[in-house]
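Archive entry. Fields below.
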Amino acid sequence: MPGDQVVVRLVNAVVMSNGFPLLSGVDLEVERGSLVVVTGANGAGKTSLLRLLGGLDTLTSGAGDVAGVDLVNGDLRLLRRRVGWLGHEGSFYADLSVRENLVFAARALERPLGDVETALERVGLGHRAETTTKQLSAGQRRRLGLAWLLVRRPELWLLDEPYASLDDAGREFFDRLLGDVLAGGATVVVSAHDPLRSNDLTPRTTHMVGGRVSTS
Amino acid sequence: MTRVAWLVATKDLRIEARSRVLLWQVLPFGVIALLLSGLALGPTQAGKSSAGPGLFYLVTLFVTLLMINRSQALENAPGTKASVATLGLDPAGVFLGKALALTIELWITGLVLLAGSVLVLHTALVGTLQALPSILVTLATLAAAGTLYGALTQGGDGPATLLPVLTLPAFAPLLIAGERSFSAALHGGALWEWWVIVVVALVAYTAVGILLYGVLEES
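PREDICTED_STRUCTURE:
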């Protein structure tokens, strides 16, 4: 809801998949413009939490609203348009070039095509714009994912282990980018195995164990 | 809806042009299957046999199944599905776009196979050309139905191998109608009655796809 300072509100959120609990009672609030890092071991529920926040999975029980959309009765398609998702698998059509992928996203969301060039330069992929995406390295695919989000300009960024495949320079670049995104008023939720190493960002760290938030 | 349809169709066709799966995998398979059909009939029987239209549609069915799986696989690559879902595209537009792209790909394949059936199965050229409009409509209907069933088998946890089983009841009447109108064009008979069935099916599948594709995507 416009003006609401809480972008994410989950109350006893449970997500089941084939009888297995991916999230088993999560309570979480995230304020607008804040950075939250969700840490935890493999299988702790970090990705499931992000998928729930992105409207990619549905609540089995509990309650919540994200970016003004009720997770129980609201329009999840509307929610998905308000969030940006960067998964750890790569996020694009492998047979399209870098630029074609971004143009597709820009046209889908009716954004100006000039944003594509700006995003390409911002993430340092201007020289690989015509390269087919499947020919990119893993780190370059991460940068393309970030460019996709820059074109999208979502109000809630959901980044699933964004530091994977990034070298030190890539991590520094990513931290600077996150700083700019937060300064622009967006909210960011990041999943990571470990707390952020950045000295400039001051995130709130939430730790997950067994599908629950253990410390926040 | 039409804006999204155009966006999705051009994207699918661009991917096809770039990956050349149609050119290097589907078309050779179709041509070889047609060639084997001609060899099975034998050189003396091919021209006399009335099996030409049926064999043409049998091979078309095989390549259609391959292309439906390919079309859906584009959307279900790891990571792609979640990212594209956050674009919030109108599902009716996505359905129309994917069906349109598949139609164009099937038309290209169909024209090659049709030329092959003239050469290999010795179907009469004039009759084959007369059958062309009904064949194009039948292929468009297969594309619309196939896009729906493809989303059903690949959108959720269902294995893609279910596709032939699920599509058989939907495709059988279309293939029979297509084969009958092709035979009528070659040997004389009721051409238009069969064509009407296919046109009605095209309208019905398109309407169902526009209404239900979003539900299939969500499932």
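CURATOR_NOTE: The helical segments of chain A are 46-53, 76-82, 98-108, 114-122, 138-152, 168-183.
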